[in-house]
Write a structure and sequence with these properties.
Layout lengths: L7 H24 L6 E3 L5 E3 L2 H14 L3 H4 L2 H18 L6 H10 L5 H20 L3 H20 L6 H13 L6 H18 L6 H17 L4 H18 L4 H7 L1 H8 L6
Antiparallel strand pairs: 1-2
């Protein structure tokens, strides 16, 4: 694949950041006073979910402006992550947690919003991957990376700024690949989301975190040889399974460096 080089990835990242920065106050104003768009964070402080749609608009908008080689298949998959994330934010079931919780609910005859989200996103990721390659292995890897990436970043959205910081770290690594545009778009949106997220005026929610994760997953699925993509997919699956037994927050708090990075910029207390 040819490198999408030069200033284009930087411009797309700035576009994504700009849409998030301009869109967030607009969405917040439109949703102010609506309890459905408000959540209590880990301190019990009311925060707005308006940041998520702004991030979704920024990432999808920048992807629409990207070269055809980048946006082909990506827009549908990433936009689906934003839409089903918003559905889960606004109408989600809170009684089913994790893969086991949703699977248990399905066995009991209940189709949770989380399961609907997983099925919809998995299907969109598969369709998007099939637009880039007809190889079944490539399609499977793309599906795992995009759908799994969306879920994985969402698992970090339990403290202010955490999911955005993880996105910045992963996006920076993925920008070293041969096609850095999607990673630049994700990092631009995450950077713009940091201030309201860390300030606890808003949170990413499933909409924002899922969108960032899907964009990172797309960047991983379109970068480098199949062996590298397979290793990344194995890492996504491994971390997802590990999250069923181990809290990421507990792991972060147990390591001084990770704890310091996690709390950097966060309100004290």
């Amino acid at each position: 694949m040819s490198r999408t080089g030069g200033a284009r990835p930087l411009a797309l990242g700035l576009l994504s950041a700009g849409v998030v920065g301009l869109g967030y106050p607009v969405v917040r104003e439109l949703t102010s006073g609506t309890t459905r768009w408000t959540r209590s964070n880990f301190r019990g402080r009311d925060v707005s979910l308006a940041l998520g749609p702004a991030v979704g608009a920024g990432v999808v908008g920048a992807l629409a402006a990207a070269p055809r080689s980048v946006r082909r298949g990506a827009i549908g998959a990433v936009a689906t992550a934003a839409v089903v994330g918003a559905y889960d934010d606004l109408y989600g079931d809170t009684h089913a947690k994790g893969l086991r919780g949703h699977a248990r609910a399905l066995r009991e005859g209940r189709l949770t919003t989380g399961m609907i989200k997983a099925i919809s996103l998995g299907g969109a990721a598969a369709l998007g991957s099939a637009r880039r390659s007809r190889n079944p292995v490539d399609i499977a890897l793309g599906t795992i990376l995009v759908a799994g990436g969306a879920n994985l970043i969402n698992l970090f959205d339990l403290r202010p700024g955490r999911a955005a910081k993880v996105t910045l770290a992963c996006g920076t690594l993925l920008r070293a690949g041969p096609d850095p545009a999607a990673a630049a778009i994700a990092t631009g949106a995450a950077l713009a989301a940091l201030a309201p997220d860390l300030g606890e005026s808003a949170m990413l929610g499933d909409t924002g975190a899922g969108t960032l994760g899907a964009a990172l997953g797309w960047a991983a699925a379109t970068n480098g040889p199949r062996r590298r993509r397979a290793l990344l997919a194995m890492a996504v699956v491994g971390l997802t399974l590990a999250s069923e037994r181990v809290s990421f927050g507990t792991v972060i708090d147990a390591h001084p460096v990770l704890r310091r990075i996690d709390r950097l910029g966060r309100r004290p207390g």
